[in-house]
Amino acid sequence: MRRVVEPTAKVAGALSSAPLVVTRSRGDPSDVPTLFRFLVVVAVLAGIAFAAMFALATFVEPTPREISVTIPNAKLQPK
């Protein structure tokens, strides 16, 4: 457990001579910087997206089929 002691605090508009003691446990999520938390979330989401694309590319086989395209005669004859 970590203690943070600040010199004095205002209590109801008057100065108090007692120090303000704030206690936090070690596992408190507010100890983690916000930027680091954001980057971890972005990295996890990118990992999930990469895993989904890899799974689709690996496990899904496209079905081959014939395609016929009609080309107009005007495009076939030289100018």
Features:
single chain; 79 residues; alpha+beta; 38% helix; transmembrane; membrane; transmembrane helix
Describe this structure in words.
The chain is of the alpha+beta class and 79 residues long. The protein has one domain. The chain has helices spanning 34-59, 73-76, and strands spanning 2-6, 10-11, 14-15, 20-24. The strands form 2 sheets. Strands 1-4 form a two-stranded antiparallel sheet. A two-stranded antiparallel sheet has the order 2-3. Strand 2 (10-11) and strand 3 form a beta hairpin.
Low-confidence stretches: none
Number of domains: 1
The geometry reads as: rod-shaped
Strand order of the largest sheet: 1-4
Mean pLDDT across all amino acids:
79
SSE string: EEEEHH
Structural class: alpha+beta
How can the largest sheet be summarized? 2 strands, antiparallel
- What is the distance, rounded to the nearest whole angstrom, between the alpha carbons of the first and last residues? 87 Å
Q: How many β strands by DSSP?
A: 4
* Number of helices, where a helix is a run of at least 4 consecutive DSSP H or I residues: 2
Beta-strand content: 15-25%
The gyration radius over C-alpha positions equals 33 Å
Percent helix among the residues? 25-40%
